[in-house]
Write a structure and sequence with these properties.
about 400 residues; mainly alpha; two-stranded antiparallel ribbon; about 45% helix
Length: about 400
């Protein structure tokens, strides 16, 4: 017996009994006839349109028929195909502004169906959707092939759009000739703002750096280094040493320090005058102020400056030590301990300088320097209070 549905088993048994295939009646046959099972609900086939894709035979073979699956089929409308092709042919139509507000009810146009034979019947400025609906109307109502209906709708759409463009262009030209002035839109206003913003950049480029610095009272402008940047091999230093000039690296103080630790207004003016009165000596060394002293600046006029400073300090304040008293203290405390180290360092410097000028021989003078204990004459200049606690000395034999 073939495969049957459970609700139809008793029908199959009755047919077999009539054909004498079953001689004895089953015991369950009469109860099932008295109380038959419930029939299954009817399963109606889905209603499909003529646009459904059907399987066609390939190369003359008969297509294999398959039972439909219980899943929704894809929804397809002819308007989608026409709309897709329309925007592929007219891509700039998608950039035109359109209203996205929908009303409560969508009312059909008065011209519709068989009476709609020309696209102009719905206006002289048609929209893309009007052209699409006109092509569908020609295909479904007037029984025109889809390709021919699309070509006819597109031709009328292009002619109406060109007429509208020409009419609006000439209307604007006539209005301008008659004296009409059109107000700028938001796009034009944005361009004007951008131009005004860019014009400010040209003004900023014309402003001098000096004027900017003048506006800021306490702005410092760092100047470039002025002078030689190459190493002179100590030639200038040796010349100053042979001339008997004394090197001084400590800062000079021209006025006594007040109790509050600040200089007066007169002292500031003196420092400014010293900066302005810089002059070069005959030997080519600049005698600069106390704030501009460098390591290579050597001059004979510095000795007189320090003597004048000592006299002014004695007159201004009795608490400050004199130059002689400071020298005595330094000789007792500092020079007594570092005497040997200073002698060794100066010995190597003298040897290097002697080799450069040719005054020293390779022979016995080096041995004499090694075995001899020479005395040093040291001149010390004290560093004033508030300007640093370091002391520098220059030794000559």
């Amino acid at each position: 017996m073939g495969r049957r549905i459970a609700s139809q088993v008793h029908h199959q048994v009755s047919r077999l009994m009539r054909g004498n295939f079953i001689q004895k009646e089953p015991k369950w046959y009469q109860p099932v006839l008295n109380f038959p099972p419930l029939p299954l609900p009817a399963k109606a086939p889905p209603v499909r349109t003529s646009y459904d894709q059907r399987m066609k035979p390939q190369f003359g073979r008969q297509a294999k028929l398959r039972r439909p699956k219980n899943r929704p089929m894809p929804i397809h409308y002819i308007e989608d195909d026409i709309r897709r092709q329309f925007y592929a042919d007219h891509p700039f139509e998608a950039f035109r502004p359109a209203t996205l507000i929908e009303k409560g009810d969508i009312q059909l146009h008065e011209v519709n169906g068989a009476s709609w034979t020309r696209l102009r019947q719905r206006g002289r400025n048609p929209q893309p959707e009007d052209a699409i609906q006109f092509a569908v109307n020609l295909h479904q109502i007037h029984d025109i092939p889809l390709s021919q209906a699309y070509a006819q709708a597109i031709a009328q759409f292009r002619s109406l759009r060109s007429e509208h463009h020409i009419s609006t262009t000439f209307a604007v030209m006539e209005a301008e000739d008659l004296g009409a002035v059109f107000v700028h839109g938001e796009i034009e206003h944005a361009f004007e703002k951008e131009k005004r913003a860019l014009s400010t950049w040209e003004k900023l480029a014309d402003v001098d750096e000096g004027s900017l610095a003048a506006r800021k009272r306490w702005k410092m402008i760092a100047e470039r280094h002025i002078g030689e940047t190459d190493w002179s091999r100590g030639v200038q230093y040796v010349k100053m040493w042979q001339a008997g000039n004394r090197v001084n690296y400590s800062p000079a103080l021209t006025r006594p320090i007040e109790e509050n630790g600040e200089m007066g207004m007169e002292d500031d003016e003196d420092y400014e005058e010293e900066d302005e009165d810089e002059e070069y000596d005959d030997e080519g060394v600049a005698s600069r102020s106390s704030y501009d002293v460098e390591e290579d600046d050597i001059g004979e006029s510095e000795e007189e400056d320090y003597e004048e400073e000592g006299e002014e300090e004695e007159e201004g304040s009795s608490d400050l030590l004199t130059v002689e008293e400071l020298e005595d203290l330094l000789e007792e405390q500092i020079l007594g301990v570092d005497d040997l180290e200073d002698g060794e360092g100066e010995e190597s410097e003298w040897e290097e300088r002697g080799e450069e000028e040719g005054d020293w021989e390779e022979g016995g003078k080096e041995d004499e320097w090694e075995g001899e204990e020479f005395e040093e004459e040291t001149e010390v200049v004290p560093a004033p209070e508030g300007k640093g606690s370091e002391f520098f000395d220059f030794t000559k034999k």
